[in-house]
Amino acid sequence: MYKYDLPKEINAWIEVNKDALLNNLTKVKAMVGNTKILAVVKANAYGLGQNEVTRIFQEAGVDYFGVTNLLEAINLRESGITSPIVLFMPLVAEEQFLLALDYKLIPSISNTAQLQMLQQVAIARQEKVKIHIELETGMGRTGLWLTDIPLFIEELINCSNVEVEGIYTHLARAGSDRDFSEKQFLTFKKGIELFQTKEIEIPIRHIVNSAGVINYPHMHLDMVRTGTLLYGQVPIGVKTDGLIDPWLTKAKIVNLRNLPENYPIGYGSEYITKNKSLIGAVPVGFADGFNVSPKIKPKSFMDMIKIITKEFLAYYGKGPQTLEVKHDTKFYPVVGRIGTQLTMVDFTGSEVKENDIVSLTLRRINTPQHLPRVYLQDGQPYKITYPEKEIDLLKKEKHDT
Q: Least packed by Cβ within 10 Å: which of 194, 346, 360, 390?
């Protein structure tokens, strides 16, 4: 046991529970059996911290990792990750393919031009490179059209320096539309058959995301891709249990003051105290992703009504979108307009003190990297990471003693 001692400059941070991540991985393994697992660690591992989360999963035996772009993949390699890494975003220049070879990455290929470019680079380097072919089956984003497969195969046969290790596609509605997902699966199988007719057998076929892992066991094939489940979140349209949320945002109360009745708070004076109030400042704001979320177009008129109702209730401090912080077991409302890096909270009636710690909700994917991540195991912190800094608390403890 050792003290949870943060550097003095830290007033707000994210706790990431390693035990929860391993629990979730165990649950996914039970769902997929011997099927390979590709852990999606794009977008800074959905906010949890790409390097440490990937290291945890690598040590736990995850087969592959998936990221969107070269910067993410290079970051992982330079942090010591040695497992196979698949790039989801297409590469568009020879220099990018050279980097993929330098860092032993697996590019996704979705058209003949990319294949030709990669072959040229691989010949020049006298190397053989593995690829995963992406098929377009209904996502409407990236991927090789089935009608283009015959010409693609003609080119592939001449690419002696390219090894097709995998083939995949993306389910667009895995949690909401079984019929559409099954149509995508059928299209995907037709695409694979076109390669098989030319005696091209591809060893790793993968189609399901986190929602698909649960909803479509028959689509597990050779590998599943999952991020959301590993991070303790259940996708919309999916039912499962036993997952543990590894994420918790914490911050210190940096200022407390008693304000009189009818006193304005924050920019625009949008909130006026109704009575004498104890108001505290918490060092988290919209620059940290607090109360920031993507604007999603309503799917129907009723969906729009639901969104408007939630916004209406939140305006009056009611409903699921009410902004609060938690101290011990009690919740306290956010008041006034949220600032860039400060939020005001009404602690009236409590006995909180400056430097006390509160917890609050941040949308993970919007939480920037500048907030420190504190990694816990068995309830105790063992590492802190934030931009250009990493503190191994176990090594620090040994040094201090």
A: 390
- Of 27, 36, 42, 252, which is the active-site residue? 42
Q: Among 24-33, 68-77, 373-382, 390-399, which stretch is predicted with the lowest mean pLDDT? A: 390-399
- Tokens read off for 21: 């991540």
Q: Which of 2, 4, 267, 315 is catalytic?
A: 267
| DSSP β-bridge partners for residue 384 | 374, 391
- Domains detected in the chain: 18-226 (3.20.20.10), 254-354 (2.40.37.10)
Count CB neighbours of 265 within 10 A.
18
Give the C-alpha separation, 146 to 126, whole Å.
Answer: 31
The pLDDT value recorded for residue 184 is 98
- Dihedral sign for Cα atoms in the order 20, 21, 23, 24: positive
Does residue 183 have a pLDDT over 90?
yes
Alpha helices in 68-200 (DSSP H): 70-78, 94-102, 112-125, 149-157, 178-196
Query: What is the DSSP secondary structure assignment for residue 366, as one 8-state letter?
Result: G
Instruction: Give residue-wise pLDDT tens across range 24-58.
Output: 999 999 999 999 999 999 999 999 999 999 999 99
Amino acid of residue 26? T
